[in-house]
Write a structure and sequence with these properties.
The complex is a heterotrimer of chains A (327), B (292) and C (291). By secondary structure, chain A is α/β, with parallel strands linked by helices. Helix content of chain A is 35%, strand content 30%. Chain A has a 6-stranded mixed beta sheet, sandwiched between helices. In chain A, strands 2-1-4-5 form a 4-stranded antiparallel beta sheet. A 4-stranded antiparallel beta sheet of chain A has the order 12-13-11-14, covered by helices on one side. The longest helix of chain A has 16 residues, at 178-193. Chain C starts with a helix and ends in a 6-residue tail after the last helix. In chain C, helix 5 runs antiparallel to helix 7. The chains are: A alpha/beta (327), B mainly alpha (292), C mainly alpha (291). Chains in contact: A-B, B-C.
Chain lengths: 327, 292, 291
Amino acid sequence: MNAIEVLSLTKRFQRKDDGKKRPFAAVDSIDLAVEEGELFGLLGPNGAGKTTLIKMLCTLILPDEGRALVNGFDIVKEAEKVRASIGWLHGETGGRALYWRLSARDNLRFYASLQNVPPDFAEKRIDALLDFFDMTEEASTLVKDFSTGMKVKVMLARTLLPNPPILMMDEPTVGLDAATAVETRKLLKALSTDLGRTILFTSHNMFEVERLCTRIAIMNSGKIVAIDTPLRLSEITKEIKAVEVRISEIADAKILDLFQGFEGVQKVVKTEIGEDYSLIQVQVEDEQKAIATLPEFLQEKGLNVISIQRALPTLEDVYMKLTRKST
Amino acid sequence: MSVSSLLGLFREEAPRLKSTFRQIYAVVWANLMIFFSYKYSVITDLLSMAASIFMYFFMGLQVDPTQLSSRGYGQSYIAFALVGVATSQYLWICLSRLSHIIQHDIRGGTLETVAVTQIKMGVYFIGQTIRGYLISLISLFGTFAVGLFALGVTLQINVYTIATTVTTFLLMIVANQAIGFMTAGIVMVYKRGDPITFILAGLNEFLSGVLYPLELLQQFPIVYWMARMFPYTYALDAMRKSLIGGATILSPDVYFDLTMLIIFSVVLLPIGLKVLQRGYNVIRKNGTMATY
Amino acid sequence: MKTPELINFLKEVPVSGREASVLEKVYAFVVRDFRTWWTYKLWVSIDILGTLMFVVSYYFISKIVTTTSLEAAGYGTDYLTFAVIGVAFQQYVFSSVSTLSESIRGEQWDGTMETILSSKTGFRTFLLGESVFRFIMGSYFLVTALLVGEAIGVKITTNLGSILSAAVMTILLITSHMIVGILSAALILKVKEGDPIVWSFSWLTQLFSGVLYPLNLLPSQISWIGAIFPLTYSLDGIRRCLTVEATIFSPMVAEDIVKLAIFIVVSLPIALKAFKAAYDSTRIDGSLGQY
């Protein structure tokens, strides 16, 4: 079953253009299906419509056209049941969507009451979440005295507290220190794979999205311009055939000439020099042939080949290409 | 705590405990905690309240007693003003508290957060208004305490006058809160509420005879009849007649005032609730729940 | 603009090396505040309506008040004139000072305070800049209140000497209350909460400075408290100027001026020192940007 199903969903707003108010579609007839247990990434530049889409799915905004089902419930006609099925992480950075004059624990208790979590369960989960986010000692401190990262942790804890089947998260790791971000990603992955929770999240961190998500949708100007697994998206947008070779020598002009001289190599595309390695990407006529023959050639020339693989565009390359194309 | 331990906890399904009362309690309790965290404000509010009563006491030493007694308000200006000053705070609470809190929640991002939970927004708003009433009880009783014990004000206090006053007071809250719901609905949509609530509460206070007998407005008939359009005018009149004059529900003057309050409540309450509901629906339709 | 173009643009050295004067910086604050205020046009109209309501309410109160105590205190006037002058000037300074502390609180909240104080603008200029517009607006409403009062029966002299004397008293009133504002700003900077100084000042002055009644009505055990507040002397002097045509050369008004001057000379350095101490303290403990 699909956890989230979106059918021709549209939302229009008015905006001033040359002094006149004109309608524009923030979300333009979107179709989307997210399976149960999927960790689904939603990417797009600022103003693409990601937050508007998520807010419609959270019943905060009513759509103008189309419909959507969240956990099988219609977002307009069964809004209450939708809200009972979701947890939403506010995209508001800086943790302003908290009660600053309440402590972390009181903020969470309040939220638990609104989410109908029984008090005994709530206390257990609050303790566990505060412990997970390393906030046990600060549990009784007023939120106004927290750093930005600490506020984000409280917001994350709040989102996870009612343990809903579907999580909608707007930039869940922004503002977190590296260690907490790593643990949070692990948690999201585990919630999806082990507990079958469906997670729809937005992020500007391509590395994070590429590593976590089973599928990604890229939005631009209110539309979905691409939707697929990270790997297939890379392949779809691949413009040239290329391979990446990692050698343990530092690539100088002489070494690059060697690559250039190999039959089947059209040109050296880019070079990355590390402390004790070089990564050279070369454009080739036939990737399979290059992978089979290039290492032997290089080793005969005295180079130590660590690895060779097809060079795929990074998700960032894909994103840049697709969002530039569709503006 | 590790990821696996946390997951173990989340494997346990919690039964959802649906309780409107618990939700209202949570809203009231959270907001009371927030209020009391402003320690200075609590103290300064109480001191301001006490000071204003003393101020009206000294001002009242200049008042000609016959100007009040000839109009049925006894001879003491401070008694006259005490009832007005004590209850006018509730006027402001009823008319503007909800608008104010909605604006505050919109700016803080907490309105959206609450709207995504399982609490009905109507229940949330009720919780917020209850909190306002509870906090203002401190001022209300404090004001009367200062008047009665520090300034020696004499009021007609017995079971019948208290019952009459409380009944009038509750009707006053219902009628004015209905107007407060309307302004809150408008503020939600147009994002600029302070002017509306200020005019409403300010005009109300100005015209209802808080600091001077209403009859003085009779020389300006239009103004006098405007005053008659506010529920608080009748409430104040009835409470004064009861606490100062000893009248009860059965007295013709008080009976008339209460009837007017009931009519106001019956007519305004459904309208106020509808405007509030409509306002909320409009911001969901326009997608402006977070804009200000 | 692409990155290389922006880099080239930033390589250009600014043409003018001249630093803006204090007046220019204060002017910048005033322009900022005026533009912000102007976006709340509806509020401006409501404020005028509010002023109208409070003045007119004292018209009705004056109908039930006798003037015996006013005459005994030497204010040969009606209660309406007495009360409108009192409330108008008290509200003038209170609103100017309280909006100063609110705006500082607002700057803390928005994070703009750190931005300003990390620029080439010192804290004295910052305080002055934050205050000026508020007092300008306060003056606007003060004049409106007095004009409305005149329209409904407030009797204010047209004697030029008396009016100028009242203006001198008003300048002293403003200066003395800016000191209160600076002290309150110092407290807010440190404590990050709302403003007990301004609020205490408000109700204390209403009670003890003769805003709504002459001080001869207060019991002798507490009437001396008003002597602490500059508003007491200011109101006394302004009332005498505007109602009985006294001037700064009249003995009682001159006495008020001397007392105000002493207050200003003694308190202003203390207030500035207090603000600097609070400012330095927040820079030491790193809490300048906290709210």
